[in-house]
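hiii, so i know i said id send this last week but things got crazy w the move. better late than never?? heres the sequnce for the chain we talked about at the cafe, plus the structure i predicted for it. fair warning i was half asleep when i ran it
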Amino acid sequence: MPYADLRSFLATLIKKEEMIKIDEEVDPELELAEIVSRINQNKGPALWFKKIKGSPYPAAVNFMASERRLALAFEVDSLDEVAAEIRDTLEPFLNPGKGLMDTLKYIPQLIHMNKFLPRTARRAGCQEVIETNPDLNLLPLLKAWPQDAGRYITMPLVILRDPETQRQNMGIYRMQVLDSSRAIIRIHPHKDGAEILRRYRERGKQMPVAVAIGTDPATLFAAFAPLPFGFNEMVFSSFLQKTPLEVTRAKTVSLEVPAQAEFILEGFIDPGEEAREGPAGSYTGYYSREKVFPVFHLTGMSRKKYPIFPISVPVKPPGELSYLIDAAARIFLPLLQFHLPEIVDLAVPAAGAFHNCVIVSIDKQYPGQAQKVMHALWGLGHLLFAKVMIVVDKETNPHHLHEVAWKVLSNLDASRDLIFTEGPADTLDHGSRYQGMGGKIGIDATAKRRGEEAADDWPEAVVMDPAIVEQVTRKWKAYGIES
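okay and structure toks below
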């Protein structure tokens, strides 16, 4: 059964011994982040803090911070199962066939898509309590690091409506709370939310905003996922859950919100009003620079009777975001393969904090194919931020960094295999020459073919005879070697 809400998912984590409850009161200013940092170093459990200083609400952290917890979130044994289902579902749209029989065989899958449309809830848990005097300061707001400019909501699902298409969009943008009714929303200029905001600015209109806090894990991941512009994240949430997401109309703005969210904040952004956000510690392990972003004005708040407040602590890799990024790379691999069928696998190392490094293995068939893949990936979605793009042959597992390093250092000729270019940079990338713009490097670590200036025939990597491998495995205990 899919998770109805955040609480039901947390109950599963407790049952599976993936989460523990903390009775001791914890201060959300610095103390909570130090606890989580130590937990991450030891790959420890998710935490449910029952008492948060200064707030009447408990908080949950790290509940998506492991591959096992993500598998539990999607109710699968492996995230590869989700990728396979995406591949099967998208096939009729991306590879429809030419003949009548080819088209007819996809009808069951097309009918299957209808059940992914969100449905109106009979009971909206998120509106059990309507706050008559809403106050953002009562939430367990996080100050993770000493130089943070303020306190933050770190897992807000910001819901907007495109004034042109009337389609809704949902994304995760951190919010720096200024006072009881205002917060800065860090909507990066490359995100869908920024494009929607520009359209309201062109019309000279206020932008209605709803913020869902504390949803089921599928909806949370859908808001995080790098979906194409205009694609409804709530439909994708329904796909992940294999059942329609329940939604309800917000009380003061014309937006649909997840009906079983823990909290709903309602309000607006005046496109002409901005405030300076940051500095604040980010998932890169560094403080983000100060920059101006739009200001959200709170006009209403609703919640469950006994809500739980989710917190994502921005710690240096590996942290919760590292696991979410790895999950996104694996789950959306089929989409990349439809565009670039030569791609075998793709990895986003945790140390790279997503925008620093992407490693891709390909089934190379012709000279220059590695460079073709690099440029294509730099033109696809969030991969445009990749500062380092490494391409290896299909025999190399991009998730095994030692193996990748061996291939790079063995195969590289710096005068031939390095590509330098420039392009958009993540606004959290402090290393780029300009904020939002910087240099990139592509590394072709594939075996070279005729036409790629290899001095001689490219040598084969040494590989043991499979029969000998099997023989030694079978006799291993007889050797008396302890390992």
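btw The chain is about 30% helix and 25% strand. thought thatd interest u
miss u guys!!
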